[in-house]
Amino acid sequence: MQAMNRAIAAAERYTSNLAPLAEKTTGLATYLYLPTLGALAVVTYAFVLETGVSTSSTMHMQMLVVLGMIMALALALALWRAKDDVLYYAVVGFNRVVVNLYFRKLDTAGNVDAIPSQGPVLLIGNHQNQFMDGLLLTALAPRKVRLLTAAKSLHRPIVGSFAKGLGCIPVTRPKDVAFVGSGSLRLDTNAGEVIGSAGASFSSELAPGSSIATKAFTATVVEVLADDRAKVSRVAFKGSAESDENVKSLAPAADTPAAYKVIPKLDHSQMFSEVFEQLASGECVGLFPEGGSHDNTHLLPLKAGVALMALGALEKFPDLAITIVPVGFHYYAGSKFRSKAVVNYGDPLVISGAEWRSEFASAKRETVGKLLGMVEDALRSVTLNVPDEDFLDFVLVTKRLYTPPNVVLTPSQNLELTRRFAVGLQREDLLHDEAILDVRRRVAAYADLCRRHGYSPMSATSVATRSLYGLRAIPYLVVVATASLLALVPGIVLNMPVGLLARSLAHAHAAKAKAESSVKLHGRDVIASYKLIVGVVAMPIWFITVLLGLLVFSPLTWTQVVILAFLMPLYSWVGVMFTEQTFLWSKSVYPLLLRILPSYRAEEAVLARMRNELAGHIRQLIEDYDKGGFAENERIVPLKVLQGADDYDGWIEETN
Ligand SMILES: O=P(O)(O)OC[C@H](O)CO
Q1: What DSSP designation does 302 have?
Q2: 139-500-97 Cα angle (round to 5)
Q3: pLDDT digit string (tens) for 440-461?
Q4: Which atom of ligand 1 is nearest to the CA of 519?
Q5: Cβ distance 250 to 216 under 8 Å?
Q6: Residue 325, SS3?
Q7: How many of the other CB atoms lie within 10 Å of CB of 36?
Q8: β-pairing, 179-180 with 211-213?
Q9: Residue 384's pLDDT band (boundaries 50, 70, 90)?
Q10: Predicted local distance difference test score (pLDDT) of residue 412
Q11: How far is the CA of 270 from the centre of ligand 1 (A)?
């Protein structure tokens, strides 16, 4: 026993020596070093046996068993010591599989090496696809990321377990703990008090530091005087209070009794100190500075937390140099299974030095504002920011028309070109420019006609002519579609119930999320996450049900059912692949079929002409507006390529 204890202690010492190395490499590989050595020892020993050293075979067996036990012990100790990493990489490994299953195409773009392999990092992203954003952020990062997550998410059944496995740092958000106060209240501006109606219960619901919000104003409670009276400070009237006059005009609305929300005073000190500690020990912390997930087509105002984290850590640990890396998540119909996404990394921002520290010490609010502005610029450089979906349509279709049909842009080029269009078309001088407004009307008409003909105006690179020649593809496509439909049957049986369940539950959940949120427009940002959650839970349950059904009701034997159990994920995956291909084929067949109708054929000629004229017009317009603005090497699509020069043909392959 004593010998065993010594062995354990020795193994512990050995693995603890490995720990710093493992932390540096952040991989599990290092922790498996010892067992690998053990395995090598066993192999060597077996080899020695084979080469015939003479000892009794029982002794060989005993030695092998002892070696095996040492290896198992070493592995168990190594895994135990590294249990957080083990759990983290197990969850991240799962996330990697999940995101690659969910997205048909997942690309990275921009400064893909922006995340340094060592040292403190704040990884910040836009937040338009709820848990999918965190999944992607951790799955694609080349190092461990401690993600900040809404505390309420950590209490959710499945999500919470995953978040805990990732070692997420919980943040209690005001909106998650706000509640509707009893009765109603009004503001007595002169006394600096709020007066409650009958039924108000200030003594139990309010406390110094909690905030009150009505439709007309917000205020912070200083002291609760009675169940219907409380002293308040920091009163801010809602509406655009740009002048003192304006503020006065808003005040009377606050004097009328109204329903109110209470936001209890929150203490974030523990969360901040955890973040500071993480940064001080050179870790990477991930967060979404908009504070919550939403489905707007632009960034929401950033919360100050991100700046407070960087500056607070610098204040506490003066030698730190914190790298802030902006990450832009771009989803193309991201709520749909097998859609496309691009993760765009921006240039890092390094915050260090005495200058920031002294600025922060002398003017906290201004310095936080300054850094927050820089963080916002960084995030804007990797995201698209347009007022609404209509404008996004305008940007995407215009960019598609501008790009020559045969040019294939890399994901980075494509995103950057789209971003420049989004910024350019919102330029103050162009927003109301008659020529641009005219283009917008023409682009909208072109997009409508495209959709009528079954083309996606964002991706169609050309429109077929009125010839019926293209129809010869139809018999081939029908044969392929029929064959794939037959092949689909097992996959459909397996996938469809879960797919339909996930879809309907996710849409119901989106309606609920929208109703509960003040920032979600349709709740679309929660759909992908919910589909994943339902899929992860329902798929294994469904598989087991089918297998049990086969065992009980079919003539299959146990062995056959066990073999089927192993084949099921494969069937399911083949089903997904075939469904996807059939769907994509049917999308390309649809315009061909429409072409059989003479009226559509005639209109198609109009559409093709419209496309050519509009594309030429847009290119010319961009040239006119940007005259002298672009050096040839700053252009994403070289001018000669835009003009269709033959000697630039090679460029198209180069960028593929
Ligand atoms: O409550 P939501 O929709 O903002 O989403 C939860 C967080 O963003 C992720 O923790």
Answers
A1: P
A2: 15
A3: 999 999 999 999 988 889 887 7
A4: 4
A5: yes
A6: strand
A7: 13
A8: unpaired
A9: very high
A10: 94
A11: 20
Is residue 286 classed as helix, strand or coil in its secondary structure?
A: strand
Helix/strand/coil for 206: coil
**SS3 state at 181:** coil
pLDDT above 80 (res 615): yes
Mutate to test the pocket of ligand 1, among 126, 128, 129, 131 (most ligand atoms within 8 A of CB): 131
- Residues 410-437, mean pLDDT to the nearest whole number: 91
Question: Kind and range of the H or E element at 150?
Answer: strand 145-150
In degrees to the nearest 10, what's the CA dihedral of 42, 47, 52, 54? -20
pLDDT at 325: 98
Question: Residue 291 C-alpha to ligand 1 middle, in angstroms?
Answer: 8
User: The pTM is what?
Assistant: 0.83
What is the CA 293 to chain-centroid distance, rounded?
Answer: 9
Phi, psi of 217 (to 5 degrees): -155, 165
Most confident of 30-34, 72-76, 271-275: 271-275
- The whole-angstrom separation of Cα 360 and Cα 358 is 5
Element containing residue 566 per DSSP (H, E):
helix 558-594
Give the whole-angstrom CA distance, residue 185 versus residue 425: 46
* DSSP codes, 591-651: HHHHTTSHHHHHHHHHHHHHHHHHHHHHHHHHHHHTTTT--GGG-SS-HHHHTT-GGGHHH
pLDDT tens-digit map of 215-231: 889 999 999 999 999 99
| DSSP for residue 474 | H
Closest CA to 379 of 288, 466, 311: 288
Give the distance (Å) from ligand 1 centre to CA of residue 168: 13
pLDDT in tens, 481-529: 777 777 677 777 889 999 999 999 999 999 999 999 989 999 999 999 9
Q: What is the rounded distance in angstroms from the CA atom of residue 327 to the CA atom of residue 382?
A: 6
The one-letter code for the residue type at 224 is V
Most confident range (mean pLDDT) of 265-274, 571-580, 604-613 is 265-274
First to last CA, the chain: 65
Cα–Cα distance for residue pair 603/210, rounded to 1 Å: 63
- The average pLDDT across 334-360 equals 95
DSSP characters over 168-194: PEEE--HHHH-EEPSS-EEEETTTTEE
**Residue matched to tokens 């990275």:** 108
**Using one digit for the tens of pLDDT, what is the confidence trace for 77-97?**
878 888 888 899 999 999 999
96: phi > 0 → left, psi -120 to 50 → alpha, else beta; which? alpha
Question: Which of 138, 153, 287 is the pocket-test mutation for ligand 1 (most atoms within 8 Å of CB)?
Answer: 153
* Distances in whole angstroms, Cα of residue 543 to Cα of each of 102, 349, 562, 566: 19, 48, 12, 10
Q: Which of 105-119, 138-152, 393-407, 626-640 has the lowest mean pLDDT?
A: 626-640
Report d(CA 12, CA 2) in Å as an integer. 15
Buried b (16+ CB within 10 A) or exposed e, 221-241: beebeebbbbbbeebebeeee
Rounded (to 5) percent helix, strand, coil in the chain:
60, 15, 25
